[in-house]
Design a protein that fits this description.
Number of helices: 17
CATH topology of the largest domain: Jelly Rolls
CATH superfamily of the largest domain: Galactose-binding domain-like
Radius of gyration: 26 Å
CATH class of the largest domain: Mainly Beta
Shape: globular
Number of domains: 3
Strand order of the largest sheet: 1-2-13-4-9-10-11
Protein name: BACK domain-containing protein
Distance between the termini: 40 Å
Helix content: 10-25%
Length: 561
């Protein structure tokens, strides 16, 4: 299923293609430059075609046309083709160029890489990094295909993740750059563009405001608006709010008209309740009614985003992701420069570029979460169960035994019976708490969780009411609700996977401990309805290294609580 997850990443499943049907993301008169970031194992495809529809390997509009020999006109560029060994260009399904041994002609599944591909009058130029730089190939079609308009993003036999997708006008205005030798083009350092300067400002906003406030307040309203939309802006929303207010107070009369456009770009739902109270107490809240409205919206969203009332749709789906009969992608937050609904944009977390390792949910059982990541020593070696190596620790509310197996909770194998029962207090003859499973990442790591997956065991005691909780402190856990489920009917089969996003401010909290706590009876028809029956769990988001010197061990730091 084509979808955009909570990280604003377009996930294309095997043998599928997503089509950008919005006019702002189409080629003009058969010319244009596509810029994107991609991550995957092999075969990330960019397709230029006269009409949207079809998969990468379907070169006809329909089966009838294929039987008649009427194949669609298209160029297909494949990064990581031939088992991730080369870059390839196809014309109407026939290979016309293959490039090996050039930088970034292959994919990596561990991090996103930026690429650009330009089509101008039958000439295809490809490179990595910013558009116009690091060219690795150029091919000219002697019989150029006319009428190409639509851009498709495809996958072959594995999931491919795309983000930061943009379609620009052609870079090579006079053709001189295209005629230069590849080695020379590698050596040329382009003059910093406005976009690069804006990116630098976004990456160092707090320091720029502190060191050169006079220059910051002199920025135009249009630049400030683009700054708040820049993907590289990753500082706290309260810092962004303070910077905007500083800019506004320098010349209130001249900037007041721009505030209704700028203030909604601050992601108030990502602020904590304490930060929202600080904003509410700021004098600007009394002057601008819009600030009060945004605060109330943020408070209401954070209140419901952890409950069952929160939509199970992903943020980008709420933004208007729609797939027509030809798999057209009309609106998606993975597209750069897209005008999204402001309310949806405010709920999406900013990326931690360069500050954390991004663990993106792709599909159920994808081996992309924190348990598999740490079990593989952050990708450095083959996976070994991290509970056995003490990189992670799994605890249960009831004593560990044959049918309460901690190490199974981070494994991908289906367990027939794996239940955590109510916690009993010795000598009191009663229970001291509910049933739960917990995960301890150890002292070296914190995860800001934005997605999680549960896999049920082979029993019929399906979960119905529970809460996902997190805590930063392992010695004296202070549990915070990240997402609450009430009568959730997602799990209906033995061994089934189910996954949910974590939204709002809850998705920004770096936690060491995570817990699945039962809050209501499960679906077991027999009287024992107070157990948490799970085969495994997995968590995704932004993984922070707290103290690299302590990595590799997760010793017991607390008794079961």
């Amino acid at each position: 299923m084509l979808r955009i997850n909570s990280d604003n990443v377009l996930v294309v499943p095997p043998f599928e293609a997503a089509w950008l049907t919005d006019e702002r993301f189409q080629l003009h008169h058969g010319n244009g430059c596509v810029e994107f970031e991609v991550r995957g194992q092999n075969d990330a495809s960019i397709i230029f075609k006269s009409s949207p529809g079809g998969r990468r390997w379907q070169h006809a509009e329909s089966l009838v046309e294929a039987q008649q020999g009427n194949f669609g006109r298209q160029y297909t560029m494949i990064v990581g083709s031939h088992r991730n060994t080369c870059f390839k260009i196809e014309r109407n399904g026939q290979q016309v160029l293959q490039v090996k041994d050039e930088p970034c002609t292959t994919l990596t599944a561990r991090q996103f890489q930026r690429y650009w591909i330009e089509l101008k009058e039958g000439v295809i130029t490809a490179g990595y990094g910013l558009p116009g730089t690091n060219v690795w190939c150029k091919w000219q079609d002697p019989n150029a295909l006319a009428g190409l308009k639509f851009v498709g993003l495809g996958a072959w036999d594995s999931y491919i993740s795309f983000r930061s997708i943009a379609v620009h006008p052609c870079i090579q205005q006079d053709g001189k750059m295209g005629k230069a030798p590849i080695k020379l083009r590698h050596a040329v350092d382009p003059v910093p563009t406005l976009a690069q300067l804006l990116t630098y400002l976004a990456q160092h906003l707090a320091r720029v405001v502190q060191c050169d406030a006079s220059s910051f307040v002199a920025l135009s309203a249009a630049v400030v608006e683009q700054l708040l939309l820049c993907p590289a802006l990753v500082c706290k929303e309260k810092v962004i709010f303070d910077a905007v207010i500083l800019w506004y107070e320098d010349d209130q009369r001249g900037k007041a008209e721009s505030m209704p456009d700028i203030l909604p770009l601050i992601r108030f739902p990502l602020m904590s309740q304490f930060e929202l109270q600080q904003v509410r107490a700021h004098p600007i809240a009394a002057c601008l009614a819009l600030v009060k409205e945004l605060i109330e919206e943020a408070s209401a969203f954070n209140k419901c985003s952890t409950t069952a009332d929160a939509s199970t749709q992903e943020p980008a789906a709420q933004a208007g992701l729609s797939l027509d009969g030809k798999r057209g992608l009309h609106e998606a937050s993975a597209l750069e420069g897209q005008e999204q609904q402001p309310a949806v944009l405010r709920r999406q977390r900013r990326r931690d570029l360069g500050q954390a390792h991004e663990l993106t949910y792709l599909f159920d059982g994808d081996h992309e979460g924190v348990c598999h990541h740490l079990g593989a020593d952050c990708g450095a070696r083959q996976w070994v169960n991290p509970v056995l190596t003490k990189r992670l620790q799994v605890r249960a509310s009831s004593p560990l035994c044959r049918h309460t197996d901690a190490k199974a909770m981070v494994d991908s194998k289906l367990v027939r019976s794996n239940a955590a029962g109510p916690q009993h207090s010795p000598g009191k003859g009663g229970t001291a708490g509910g049933s739960w499973w917990s995960l301890d990442l150890g002292p070296a790591h914190r995860l800001a969780c934005n997605y999680y997956t549960l896999r049920h065991d082979a029993s019929v005691a399906y979960l119905r009411s529970w809460v996902l909780q997190g805590s930063e402190d392992a010695e004296k856990p202070h549990w915070v609700d990240l997402r609450r489920h009430e009568n959730d009917l997602s799990i209906t089969r033995c061994g089934q996977y189910a996954s949910w996003p974590v939204l709002g401010h809850a998705a920004t909290l770096p936690c060491r401990l995570f817990r699945i706590l039962l809050t209501g009876p499960n679906a077991n028809p027999i009287p024992r309805q107070d157990t948490v029956c799970l085969s495994s769990f997995e968590f995704y988001g932004y993984l922070h290294d707290v103290d690299p010197a302590t990595r590799g061990s997760c010793e017991q730091t607390q008794p079961n609580k």
